[in-house]
Specification:
Blueprint: H1 2-5, H2 20-25, E1 36-40, E2 45-48, E3 53-55, E4 59-61, E5 65-67, E6 80-81, H3 86-98, E7 103-107, H4 111-122, E8 126-130, H5 142-154, E9 158-160, E10 165-170, E11 176-180, E12 183-187, E13 189-192, E14 196-198, H6 201-205, E15 229-231, E16 238-240, E17 245-247, H7 252-266, E18 280-284, E19 287-293, H8 296-301, E20 306-313, E21 327-334, E22 340-347, H9 351-363, H10 368-371, H11 388-398
Parallel strand pairs: 4-15, 6-13, 7-8, 7-13, 8-9
Antiparallel strand pairs: 1-2, 2-3, 5-14, 10-11, 11-12, 16-17, 18-19, 19-22, 20-21, 21-22
Length: 400
């Protein structure tokens, strides 16, 4: 959606995976703009706004997530937005154009905030990030986060750290003013990019158990604590194969897989979703970032003894790296078992592909020693004979 806002994707229709009409062709009836108000478990019925009732044999809760908003005065002022779905993206894009916005304040510094900053600068709109922490994208190593900060600055994005929003009011030079504990900041729009929390209201109303994460608890077939009730997507938990516990990880690819598993199980072809290793990626201007597994801090909380290394290599063979691109790779292993438990990468190229390889290593419980000699496709335009993965793994193995 940030690429639609940035006008890289010009037609919103390209972001719709399947229209209601296409669903109808396959026998699936879609009711849009229809809120579910009650689930009657005794009668096996769902009541929607307006009173209409629908009977069910099985029911899937795919209620998604709710955007996190600061509890401050003026947060509901016109011009303050969240970005959670396509309707939000369309409304934001229209607002930017209709109001000829010159500057946008972005509250938060996760990867959605970074993508939005790039989208705004693509449209020659000034962007200023307001963040209570010190560095952007805090899940990445501070060395990598500092490179992201440099990239933002190089493209004209201001970054204000250690600052907490207090209120929104009418601006003087711009349409809006954000009052913070570090002073006022003004912009024509304010985008709140502070993450999401699982929407569990309907589940709790019918006594479905929540997991430790606060999301709906499910098993590997996506069934909840109530027989015949399933859940999929951002509202529910997923099994993390590295942590070996159930977590909430609101990402679109996970939601798609969970939905397929739930549908297959209900339809008489039982299957299971074996979980995730936490892989994710994003792009900000000229940088790729990706990670998988867990950080040292998360590892310590779960009883691991983490050991890590960061190396700086190149996305291609050094002989072909004429433009001097760098590729940073961090590996995290458990000292006791020798297993890889996390990886992060950053660079102008090659970061996502390396992390994808390492995600497979995590999925299969590989040791750092094994990864140091894993068979990878070699060609000078893509890597050296010893890939950055090999070099990092061998360096980490020597530290045991």
């Amino acid at each position: 959606m940030p690429y639609y806002i940035g006008d890289v994707i010009k037609d919103a229709g390209r972001l719709i995976a399947r229209t209601p009409e296409k669903f109808e062709e396959t026998g699936v009836r879609v009711r849009l703009n229809t809120a579910v108000e009650e689930i009657d478990t005794a009668k096996g019925e769902v009541r929607v706004a307006g009173g209409e009732r629908f009977p069910f044999d099985s029911l899937v809760l795919a209620t998604g997530a709710v955007a996190t908003l600061p509890q401050i005065p003026g947060v509901d002022t016109e011009g303050v937005f969240i970005l959670k779905n396509l309707r939000d993206a369309i409304t934001i894009k229209e607002y930017l154009s209709e109001n000829r916005c010159r500057k946008v304040l972005v509250v938060g510094a996760g990867f959605i905030a970074m993508e939005i900053c790039e989208a705004l600068r693509t449209r020659n709109i000034d962007a200023e990030v307001i963040y209570r922490g010190e560095l952007p994208v805090k899940r990445w190593d501070p060395d990598f986060s500092r490179l992201v900060l440099d990239e933002l600055n190089a493209h004209g994005v201001s970054f204000v750290s250690g600052t907490t929003p207090l209120a929104v009011e009418k601006g003087a030079q711009y349409r809006l003013r954000l009052l913070t504990d570090g002073g006022p900041y003004e912009g024509d729009m304010i985008l709140m990019a502070l993450g999401v929390r699982p929407n569990t209201v309907l589940a709790e109303a019918v006594g479905i158990a929540l997991g430790k994460s606060g999301a709906i608890g499910v098993d590997f077939s996506q069934q909840t604590s109530r027989e015949g009730f399933y859940a999929a997507g951002d509202c529910c938990e997923v099994y993390h194969r590295v942590m070996q516990e159930w977590v909430n990880m609101p990402l679109g690819d996970i939601a798609n897989k969970q939905g397929r598993v739930a549908g297959s199980s209900i339809g008489g072809a039982p299957r299971t979703f074996p979980g995730v290793v936490g892989a994710q990626s994003f792009k900000v201007f000229n940088l790729e970032l990706a990670l998988t597994g867990i950080s040292e801090r998360d590892a310590e909380k779960r009883g691991f003894d983490p050991l890590s290394v960061i190396i700086w290599g190149t996305p291609s063979a050094r002989s072909l790296n004429i433009d001097k691109k760098r590729l940073g790779l961090k590996l995290i292993a458990d000292r006791k078992s020798g297993r890889l438990i996390g990886a992060q990468a950053i660079g102008e190229a090659g970061a996502v592909s390396r992390v994808n390889v390492l995600s497979l290593g995590l999925w299969n419980g590989m040791t750092v020693d094994e990864i140091g000699y894993i068979d990878l496709a070699y060609s000078p335009p893509f890597s050296g004979a010893w890939d950055t993965i090999h070099i990092a793994a061998q360096k980490l193995a020597k530290a045991f």
